[in-house]
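Appendix C reproduces, verbatim, an entry submitted by the partner laboratory led by Prof. M.T., so that reviewers can inspect both the input and the predicted structure.
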Amino acid sequence: MFPLDQPGPTAFYLTLYLATFVLHLLPMAYVVAGAAVLLVRTLAGARPVDDPLAEHFRQWLPFILSVAITAGVAPLLFLQILYHREFYTANVLLFSRWMAILPVLVVGFYLLYLMKGDWLWQRPLVVRVTAAAVIFASFAFIGWSWSENHLLSTAGQAVWTEQYVAGRLNYLPGELWPRIGIWLSGVFPVMAAIVTWPLARGEDNADLSATASRLAMFAAIGLVVSLACIGWYLGVLEPAARTAVLDAPLRVWQAAFVVGAVLQFAAWILIWRAGRLEPLPRWLATAGALFMVAALAVGREAIRTSRLDMTALLPRHQAAAQVGGFWLFATFLVINFAAIAGCVYLVARYARPVEAERAMDKRRPQR
């Protein structure tokens, strides 16, 4: 079973990379899809005081973005161990386009804090929509850039030479478009599964029927579009990469993907029909999202390994495995995630009275 069918050191680093990458993908999906929903609700004229989704995202997006960035450190380290030459070659070839990720991330980060305050919500609609649009565009640009970098890193020496001679600062192969489609649509069911938990806690579910229906709609549309883009992507892949995804070593992950899709569709149908965020469908949606994210991450890596000479990379992985420090890394990984979990708990605990007070203000008769 992939990635355990690789040589020992390679399997070790691939497993750690995929495990930490999935931990990064979950908050990343929340941020991208949450920014998109915030834009849609702002464009519709919604304000946080009247819209639980807008209120939730404007309060939590800055913090979850910090979680996504922190969770991205570990897979980035393993990525450099696994594919050092390929990764850095793509970085250099994309040059300023690649480096633009950092200032764009800073802009999106600070606009989230502006969105969190009350000042922006007192401005005209065009100002609020512009801020929300820039936030979403910032994160979409970052994801787009990572996809280009990933594909260029697997393209090989001939393409790298042509890219360098041409002096292009982008890389737009045909398979980029279905990959972007999978990513941009697939984040919505993951976000929806995550956001059901804080929304269902501390609020009266009877007041969330419209919100539950909206979440079900976002998740269902995202699932359908992502499945269509996966079919498109399989159609444009070269035979070796397609075989790597559909072959026997990925049978367990293929089954996990199918089970995840079924669980999510079942969960959102239940939520849509009930108009409530009940525990059972929340668990089904969360488990389904986790299965699908893990399966897609493994499939993505199987495509990459099918395009690279993994035998040539093995000596580098063996040399890295001889270097000490794993238990130090594991210790700080546990400490960091414990600290993040503690922050989430504290923020959720002390945010609940504020949310309850706002809910009470809405129920009080206006004089």
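The chain has a mean pLDDT of 90. Additional entries are available on request from the coordinating office.
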